[in-house]
């Protein structure tokens, strides 16, 4: 028969491995794009996370848009979250589209929360998606749709549940329209996923049960 120490090592080793998988996110396809076409079929400017540090930045002009500065954040800088910041200046009327994506999110079932805020001299709209195929910019499930926002200063939140096979991708889409020359829009948008409380409770009960078994073995 194995000693208690070896027994506990055998018992808890798979549990520790499972916990590391459960509480970690390996998001490795962080990508940001801008375009003046809604389907991103032409005139696309892209930037990816070449340093694998969870940060991607893009600074570019595009058509009538004299300045676009956009930044995206995800793991390993921030776990279980996708953040988009963007500032846009146009020389003439027009629309620019910004999108951010990352893959390998693994919290499921999970609750998600989305929040945004900013200022505009035109109109903006936002959508966010989760995609079970774990594809960059996948649009499997629509999480949020703000509709057109035309107020000078804006903000909003939304939340819900998510139950799909992991890993999956998250994506944020934004459209900015200016009707006048020399207009400015800036905003921030984030989507966060967290495990459902029931899932965490079951994990805690399981660990507690194994602890009681170990104590009984030692007795």
Question: What would you say about this model in short?
Answer:
The protein is α+β, with helices and mostly antiparallel strands and 219 residues long. The chain is 19% helix and 49% strand.
Looking at this protein, list some descriptive labels.
about 220 residues; alpha+beta; 6-stranded antiparallel sheet; 12 strands; globular; disordered N terminus
Structure characterization notes:
This protein is 19% helix and 49% strand. It has 219 residues and is α+β, with helices and mostly antiparallel strands. It has one domain. The relative contact order is 0.19. Mean pLDDT is 83; it is low at 1-27 and 198-210.
* Major sheet attributes: 6 strands, antiparallel
According to DSSP, the number of beta strands is: 12
Query: Could you tell me the mean pLDDT?
Result: 83
Can you tell me the residue ranges where pLDDT is under 50 for at least 5 consecutive residues? 1-27, 198-210
What is the count of distinct domains? 1
Gyration radius, to the nearest Å? 22 Å
Order of helices and strands: HEEEEEEEEEEEEH
Structural class: alpha+beta
Helix content: 10-25%
Strand order across the largest sheet: 2-1-6-11-8-9
Q: Which band does the percent of strand residues land in?
A: over 45%
**How far is the first residue's CA from the last residue's CA?**
16 Å
Task: Count up the helices.
Answer: 2
Overall shape: it is globular
Write the layout of secondary structure elements.
Blueprint: H1 4-22, E1 31-35, E2 44-48, E3 55-62, E4 65-73, E5 81-90, E6 94-105, E7 110-120, E8 123-131, E9 141-145, E10 153-162, E11 168-178, E12 183-195, H2 197-218
Antiparallel strand pairs: 1-2, 1-6, 3-4, 4-5, 5-12, 6-11, 7-10, 7-12, 8-9, 8-11
Helix pairs in contact: 1-2
């Amino acid at each position: 028969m194995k000693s208690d120490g070896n027994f506990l090592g055998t018992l808890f080793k798979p549990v520790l491995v499972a916990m590391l998988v459960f509480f970690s996110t390996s998001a490795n396809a962080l990508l940001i794009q801008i375009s003046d076409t809604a389907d991103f079929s032409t005139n696309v400017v892209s930037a990816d996370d070449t340093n694998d540090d969870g940060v991607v930045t893009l600074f570019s002009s595009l058509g009538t848009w004299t300045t676009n500065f956009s930044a995206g954040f995800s793991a390993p800088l921030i776990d279980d979250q996708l953040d988009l910041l963007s500032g846009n200046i146009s020389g003439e009327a027009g629309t620019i589209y910004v999108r951010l994506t990352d893959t390998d999110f693994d919290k499921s079932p999970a609750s998600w929360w989305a929040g945004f805020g900013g200022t505009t001299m035109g109109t903006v709209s936002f959508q966010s998606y989760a995609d079970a195929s774990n594809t960059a910019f996948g649009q499997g499930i629509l999480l949020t749709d703000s509709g057109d926002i035309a107020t000078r200063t804006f903000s909003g939140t939304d939340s819900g549940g998510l139950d799909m096979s992991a890993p999956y991708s998250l994506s944020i889409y934004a459209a900015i329209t200016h009707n006048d020359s020399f207009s400015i829009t800036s905003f921030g948008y984030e989507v966060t996923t967290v495990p459902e409380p029931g899932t965490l409770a079951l994990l805690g009960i399981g660990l507690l049960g194994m602890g009681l078994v170990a104590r009984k073995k030692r007795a």
